[in-house]
Amino acid sequence: MPASTPIRPLTGFGTVNGVPWLPDGFADVFDSTLVRVGEVELHTVQGGAGRPLLLVGGWSQNWYVWRFVMPRLTEHFRVVAVEPRGVGRSDKLHGGYDTGTVAAELAALMRELGLDRFAVTGHDIGMWLGYALAADHADAVERLALLDATTPD
Fold first, then answer.
1. pLDDT of 1 higher than 50
2. Strand arrangement of the beta sheet that strand 7-9 belongs to
3. 3-state class of 150 per DSSP?
4. d(CA 42, CA 60)
5. Please, what is the angle between helix 99-112 and helix 125-136, to 10°?
6. Which residues, in sequence order, are CB contacts of 72 under 8 Å at separation 6+?
7. Alpha helix (H) ranges present in the chain?
8. Residue 77 class from Cβ within 10 Å (0-12 exposed, 13-18 middle, 19+ buried)?
9. How far apart are CA 98 and CA 104, in angstroms?
10. Could you report the per-residue pLDDT of 42-84, keeping only the tens digit for each?
11. What are the φ/ψ torsions at residue 12 (nearest 5 degrees)?
């Protein structure tokens, strides 16, 4: 596919085809893609059907942290595990790492995938991003589950 294609498959190290110790059948259900959102390409691992669920991991984790829960989640959800800017196979830019910018990119990512309303689960730093996503894009976030982090005052 041409580089200008907003969504393209990704293989190799760090993808569903390039990591060890995945649950049996994982690569049959999930695909790795790069999705262009503005100035950044974000790596996602997607699979399943049903209502969309965005998974946002902690620092310095990538999609792989969710690998054991993702197959169970696909029983009820279309799962999108994202590596935000600066993480894993996603682009690493010199700036734009504030929660507002990254949250806007995550909302744009889901729109690019054709998912206008979705649930979000955030862990650790992903909790901060999920909170900002729900606060700044309340029209898109249907539900929010946050775990394993505190927010600064």
1. no
2. 7-9, 30-37, 40-48, 77-83, 51-56, 118-123, 141-147
3. coil
4. 15
5. 70
6. none
7. 26-29, 70-73, 99-112, 125-136
8. buried
9. 10
10. 999 999 999 999 999 988 889 999 999 999 999 999 999 999 9
11. 100, -170
